[in-house]
Amino acid sequence: MTALIETLIDIVGASHVLQGNDLQAYEEDWRQRQRGKALCVVRPGSTQEVARVVKACAAARVAIVPQGGNTGLVAGSIPDESGTQVLMSLRRMTAVRGLDPVNQTITVEAGCVLQSLQEAAEQAGFLFPLSLGAEGSCTIGGNLATNAGGTQVLRYGNARELCLGLEVVTPQGDLWDGLAGLRKDNTGYDLRDLFVGSEGTLGVITAATLKLYPKPVAQLTAWAALASLEDANRLLGLAQRQLGASLTGFEVMNRQALQLVDKHFPHLRVPMWQENDWCVLLELSDNESEIHARGLLESLLEGALQDEVVADAIVAESLKQAHDLWHIRESITLAQTQEGHNVKHDISIPVSGIPAFVRAADAALRAALPGIRFVNFGHLGDGNLHYNIQAPEPSDASAFVRAHEDQISAIVYDMVSKHQGSISAEHGVGELKRHKLAEHKSPVALQLMRSIKSAIDPLNTMNPGRLLVAPN
Question: Member of which family (predicted)?
């Protein structure tokens, strides 16, 4: 391995090949639940350096683990415990290579932080609509590798739908330049979509060309309280009919999720949670005027109140109030962390089936583990629910999770399958869910995925042991 380390130093420089015991920021997952050990961390500064590093590792038959902001929740971008894998950090590759206002595209390197990309688009008078809680530290390469979702998928789609082209280094160290930014290209297999969502198992994404949208003239936020998920679905239907494409966000949160925010961050002043089982956060983006937008949103909510779809509602009166309402939603995960270890599930169900899924899963888990707390929230508009379980009060949360996590997840994933859902909606599979994937995805689909992996990465050097379990 000494020869490989020397080669890597020759490629990127000694200051960008990190070794030793002080690599926790790279080797530990964001939730601090798993830690691996890398042979070294290499930090290339250009696509050419990435290609040379990959070629050197392929020649040495050494595995590579690509990493962006290391904000993932499924331990998919940290090394295993063998001490033999090279962790490749893309954090130095942050450049905005170009912005085409006529084509409405922006081309950025994989290590560009999502928030920096949003700001670059805004400065040019455009919107890049991918938005999620980790946007201040996650990178666009990681967003694409996991096909990230977020709060505006309802209108703009996942990361895949926002991507028009990629630059990728293959497992052999070759470079595929597909950055043209074409909206129509019918010349064979869609390689872009193959690499998006592949979690670093097929190659290293080094740059991307992404869609931009005109900035809306007005954005308004509303908060509504409801008695049930059935009412949330009714409100969603009303909003889609009356607002159309102007509806850009529709987030649902249960009482327990908001109670934790109120408990740990009381300064946020969570509205309406004590009297209602569910609350919804709506966002409307309008290209006409704020007056027009407010009229649409108030008309929607007035009708919903008259029809008893919602119990109460408010429309944010300022940008600050809108920000504060969104901050409540984004603080749920942090409040859970403050409360103690918990069991997280990032699932998707057909929107119409979510109420029935929640009833069935809640009942099965209560029967198995009385006293557990359900912290449910997510992007109801696209069927993505974060179905999380908190330990009973009072109890040792860490001990509870260690003892019951597998049992809880088995019940949840069984219910997901019964309701024609997916066990991973936007966080990926990584290490944590790869064995579950083999239980909940069709054998034909898994064989096709293995065939693709074997064809593109025959030496299995790209993020091995992630996403796929080797066949028996």
Answer: Belongs to the FAD-binding oxidoreductase/transferase type 4 family.
